[in-house]
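Posting this for the archive.
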Amino acid sequence: MISPNAGTSNFAGKACHENFFVTSYQNDQPHEVLGKYAQNKGYKRAYLIAPNYQAGKDSLAGFKRHFTGEIVDEVYAPLGQLDYASELAKIASAKPDVLFVFLPGGMGVNFVKQFRQAGLADKMPFLSAFTVDESTLPAQQDAAIGFRSGMSWAPNMDNPQSKAFVKNYEAAFNVVPGSYAMQAYDAGQLINAALTATKGST
């Protein structure tokens, strides 16, 4: 089995299977980058929010792996939630040194816009993964200015393979590729390499 997207973190441990290949990451890995960044910046109090499902729990566990400061609150929003008035009021009241967010897709689009509209963008650093990225920025636009995001890949990565992929993708679809497209491309490359090595034999 080949997965072009994330795998739950336990799949890299005792539940790992020799025939399961992931061409992206395990769910806690990208978020570790932001926890390390927050730690290195000297932030002492962090407020965390993610969807209430396994990937959300993995993401916050990843952030906490390298962040040793106080977790002011750890909030799990219902999957698909689009109105964050209550959460934003609590964040404003808590006054954390830094906010970490994992709210992918439409959840992230709405949260970023509402965070900016609530006047919080100038009051605390905004760190995220899969919340402000190539898939959400077209909808968030200026609301996301100044926010930081962590990921294992970016369209401007400076190596020949990535540059070729981005060039060909933009020519084919007239948009900048996101990480999901890159991961699917890598999955295709993996399958091709396996078929080449075995001369097509299964």
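Helices lie at 29-40, 54-66, 85-94, 105-117, 137-140, 160-173, 179-197. The CA atoms of residues 162 and 179 lie 11 Å apart.
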